[in-house]
Design a protein that fits this description.
single chain, about 90 residues, alpha/beta, 3-stranded parallel β-sheet, two-stranded antiparallel sheet, about 20% strand
Amino acid sequence: MNEPALDLAIVMAVISSFKDKAVDPKMIIFGEVGLAGEVRAVTMAEQRVSEAKKLGFETCVLPKTSLNKMRKFEGIRLIGVESIKEAIGLI
């Protein structure tokens, strides 16, 4: 895959498998992950959230830097994270 926004979702899938705890099926996750575990902003974050809401997702985990730059969304809970460590706590 050549899409940096998939990094955080893949990391969360691996961690959920390791912990034997499923990620909420109504949760969408996106963000680029750096080598030190930091979660970086991605392009088109607002459009990704908008589409996720249309598809029925209830929660969105995304880079905190992207969250700070977007408008408010009704009907979907947005959780901004700065690191993998923060994201792991959501499983």
